[in-house]
Fold this sequence. Notes:
CATH architecture of the largest domain in chain A: 3-Layer(aba) Sandwich
Shape of chain B: flat
CATH class of the largest domain in chain A: Alpha Beta
Oligomer: heterodimer
Helix content of chain B: 40-55%
Number of helices of chain A: 11
Shape of chain A: elongated
Amino acid sequence: MTDYVIETRALTKRYGKKLALNHLDLQIPRGRIHAIVGANGAGKSTLFRILLGFLAPTSGQSTILGCDSQSLTPALRSRIGFVNEEHTLPGWMTVAAVVAMQRRHYRQWNEDVHRDVLGNYHVLPEQKVSQLSRGERAGLNLSLALAQGPELLILDEPTLGLDVVAKRAFLESLLNSNAAESCSIIYCSHQMEEIERVADNLIILEQGSLVNMSPPDEFCERVHYWIADMPFKGPDKSLVPGLLQVQRIEGLFHYVVIDQGEDFADFLRSHGARSVQGMPVSLDRAVNGFLAKNHIGPEGHEPRP
Amino acid sequence: MIDLFRSELLRFRHWALAYALLHLGMLGFFARVVDPLQQPDVVYLVVAAVYALSGLLLALYQMGTYRRPNTWLNLLHRPLPHWQVAVALLVAAASLLLLAIVAPLLLMLAGQATWTARVVDSRHWLLPLAAFLVTSCSYLAGVFAMLAPRRYAAAGLFGLLLLTASHAVGASALLVQLALVLWLLALVATAFQPDLTRPPVRWPGLMAVALTVQMAVYVLLASAGLGYQLLWMLQGSHPLNSTPPAGGYIEASRADGADLMAAGLVSSRVAEAPVWREQVRLAEVFTWQRQFDALPIRNELGNIAPMEFDDDARRLRWIFSHDTMRFTGMSLGDSQPAGRMGIGPAQAPFPKPPLPIGGKFLASADTVYGYDTQHRMVLPRIILPAGETLALAPSAMGEVVLVMSNRALYGYDARAFTDGDSVLAPRLRIALPAPIGDIDRVDMIELIDGYLVSFVTGLGSTDGPGSPLQAMVHVSGEGKATRVGQRALQPDFPLALRHYPWWVSPVMHDLRKLAINALAAPMPLKAQAPQPIPTSMKWLAAALLMASLLASAYWSRRQGLPRARRVAWALACAGIGVPALLAQGLIHPDSEG
């Protein structure tokens, strides 16, 4: 048995002139919850589609649960759960009928898990799927995926479009489920507060490449936020080491930098800073700053105060 | 699998039920107004088109919703082989079509058989099966159109053209439809895969798709010739919508009978020719064209024309039954059964189905029958020699009645034909100068000592191959026919345009013909003389094949195809030409690398 639930080697996917995945080398170890984040177009969905055999790579290899992802057997698919952001379930069927169908399809179906997870939602068996709210549909989808008893569960932006209450219900259903503890979970989201809450491992994709894989705390520790009072223009951006983001607000320079220690304060002072204050950042700020580094925008990465 | 099947039934159950009820209502209304089983082919064609459209719409909606990326992933990412998912969806769709299309038809037939005196033959009970097969064809073509890569997804729809183009009739037509269903199933099998953007990986699937795409491309290319003609018409100099070129085939096919016969005699070296040229100006010219392309065949599914006629004097309707090979009577007053009618006093069955041709006459492939109202009896009046087929119903010309077969023009005594009841012997026989499929028109005048006949051949040569000519025949008073003149008619279209469907791909040209004529019975009324391909056209075709081969070799590299596929496509392009080259481009996009 391989130690990795997902493994890619030089995985590349090109759409015309655009590279969706750029020689991606990724190894996701078995167990725990792994969050994958990245800006839109970073290649997350493309990666999942290749991993599940729904898209052929341009080059490179990918395996999922140790098998070539381009030749997944039905038995292997039963070991992989997948929940997408649309929660595409047959709207014309009742909840009971959908559950019965899944129960017959998956030998390792766990009725208790299904009942526990769905118990967090006010869903009646005789209700049609199309009559469920988006949050209820998400809960049903999660209960179906967890009850399958998967070794690997991929959640692709499962809380997209859910309100705050529904998001919280979804996350609690996931975290409180015993089934979630026994499988590896890939959690893809743009919601950093969710990532912060659920993820043991943070994987950041940027322009189809892996740019970070570490526990979220470790990543946060790499990123710092500095506020400097500089009367003049401040140092040229190209000279600022580890710069992710800079803003000038009410005469103060706000820097987000990565992999810089306390000597960054000296750097700022050497460029005329009268006072300098450093502080840690939240995961949201750290990831946003990290992803904003190469983001193309009308004002570059120095928005107006 | 059974769960997905049930789910799909559940999904469309209301729609299918509503369709079935509406369908039954329409059929019921139709049956109250006319006899649905005695309609001409065009009616069946329209109804079949509606069924085909229904199947297509079902496929487009059903698979259109499934093919969205997340829905497709949700459908196929489960512990079931993909083929089981496909079978579940397709069998569910087939069940829905059975409910919506077949069940109402069966009910209508049962109603006709139970409550009316109308004829319901064995062949009619096959109509629901034909409807199901036609609908299945369009459904499967729609499924392929939705699931196959966009570049060639529409190719399967071109397969539906075979349903209208095929010459097979009766059980053979069902076999052709079944073959098309199986072919489209094979195509769907290649497309029903997780990655909807990928062409088939395995050789059998790739070859099935490649052949389909090549035929679709060929049909499109062949249609481009019509597009060229439309532009020509817009430009205003097209021979068909302007003054046709002098001495050409179009001019001859449109000419006044007297002018045409006079023109045919211009080069005649017969001494009487000048006199005849004057006589054609004075005499009444009778003009005919071939009347039948085909005559009824036993147990065909449709009808060339309604197989019934009315005896107004007795208030009876006689409807022909293919099962008994006799007419079944139905009272026009109370719609009650009114006996049966065969040939002669013995009421013998008809050897071949007779078609009512008006004037109390019936025509089968080799016999013209007359109906005797007084004795409620049908008698043979004209029997063609063995192996000959009727092409023109009896037509009066002075004292003779003319009948044309696929081999000759016959003249019979008009009075005996009208008043008698016996089988007539021909007074004259004029052999046709060309196969019946080439005969465009026949013009004839009566001379003092016989007849003068003009034949124009070259039917279909306006924008196709052919060697049109006008032949003049003199028939003496004793019935001896002599060729007295002949002139070649000039083709009106450029040589390259007339042979375009051939030189653009000789193999696909022949394959199309093969498909159209598959399982078809011999069609004596469509026989044409083989047309040699001009050498220049052969060179043109060869040049295109060579260019396709070279282009394929270049393209294969850009596409990054493995060696075996490069060789296969090169061979296909060398043999099939442009359609293969374009199919290669459609099936294999340029390499992503």
